[in-house]
Amino acid sequence: MKKYIILTLITLLILSCEKKKESILVFDSEPAEKFIEIIDYIEKSSNQKLLFKKFSDQVITANYKKNSSDKYLNTKINNLLKLQAYSKLSESTIAYSDSSKIKAKDAYRFAFLNLPFYRTRMNGDMVSAWINYWENNYNLKASKFLNDLNENSEIIKNKAIRLSNKYYPSNIVKIDTIATIFCMDGNRSSFTSDNTIYMELVYSTDFNIERFTKILSHELHHINYSNWLLNKIKITSEKQEGIFKLQRKIILEGIAQQINFIDYNQQAKKLYENRELISELNINFINNLISINKSKTPLNAFQESISNMWKISDSLLEKYCKEDYEEHTVSHRPTFLYYISYQLYNVIEKNGKDEEIRYVIEHPESLLEVYNSLRNENNIIPKYPDEIVQLWKTNFK
User: Fold this and answer.
1) What Rg, from alpha-carbon coordinates, does the chain have?
2) Helix-strand-coil percent breakdown of the chain, rounded to 5?
3) In 3D, which of 330, 340, 332 has the Cα closest to residue 254?
4) If both were cysteines, with which of 7, 144, 207, 281 could 336 make a disulfide (CB 3.0 to 4.6 Å apart)?
């Protein structure tokens, strides 16, 4: 009996330790809920839906003055903007008023107060995104979706953790607590910052729990694997840092996309398999790697490579997608960061065995080397030149 009790205690201790290894996901839906309340209140108080039609300057000015003096509305706006989430969301937010710029939280306030009669010009065309959302009644679906998420939060969290666990190194130490904030920003899709996941609902229209869970798992993987990756390398020069910044993005997106690529829309999937497009993006990737390596200011070269990558993404989409764009295709427009990274890890996972993908996850410095050894004639990306393989590999040392 004594032996049985001891064994039971040891088993419970082991199970307890294993549970502690998993990140605790905390859901915060308050930013999204407060945002919905503000827009709904503006529509109700003005008795005017968010429409595209233009109004006179007099109507717009009168509406702004009315909203500015509405204490209830301003309290709602202030309560939203004082949430911790908006310290991050407002960092690069800009609203334009005539020739002047209004930044950060004041940009949101200015945009809210101009609704519903005027669409303030903001970066990311945010206000137009809000209006489209409300015009299609997605706000109603979003509210129901948030309720469903909160009611089924433990099931969703556990599945997201389980999906991401397939793609971690065996020696990973996971972040203790990761906040998941639901927002209605519209400036960008879901992203991570430090140990926080921002789940953007303005880009969600079908509100599918299964797809949402995979996106959550994708972002969860970014945080834990990024932390492991940063601890793996010791940066000793600006050149090494510039190259690693590019490598890190390729590695993170390449692995995490294996979790939720299955849910990409068919038009985007077709683009991911377009040989001519992938060839052009791969040349872009190699040239950027070389450019950062040769640059006298590697960190600036890295920033330029990412900026230029997004600048040409729209033209690449137009060049290679001759059909009318499906709803989610634009958010998956062609970039070497996503397209090449996905192809690399997908080929390794498909052509190799569990050991190969596991090895590359634990030894990211060998990514191009292992890819070269596993690719075949059916794969779109050709073998990488030895100098590129070595540049990639030696940057980790």
Assistant:
1) 24
2) 65, 10, 25
3) 340
4) 281
Please report, to the nearest 10 degrees, the dihedral formed by the alpha carbons of residues 202, 207, 209, 210 taken in order.
Answer: -90
List average pLDDT for each run of 10 residues in the chain, which is 397 residues long: 42 43 94 96 88 81 95 97 93 89 96 93 90 90 93 96 96 94 87 92 86 95 96 93 97 97 96 97 98 97 96 96 90 96 97 93 97 96 97 94
Whole-angstrom Cα distance, residue 303 to residue 301?
5
Which two three-digit tokens encode residue 113? 């107060």
Q: Would you call 268 helix, strand, or coil by DSSP?
A: helix
What is the DSSP code string of 297-364? SHHHHHHHHHHHHHHTHHHHHHHH--SPPPTTTGGG---HHHHHHHHHHHHHHHHS-HHHHHHHHH-G
Q: Which residues contact 236 (CB under 8 A, 6 or more apart)?
A: none
Question: Across the chain, which distance is largest between two alpha carbons, in Å?
Answer: 86
Tokens of 138: 């997605």
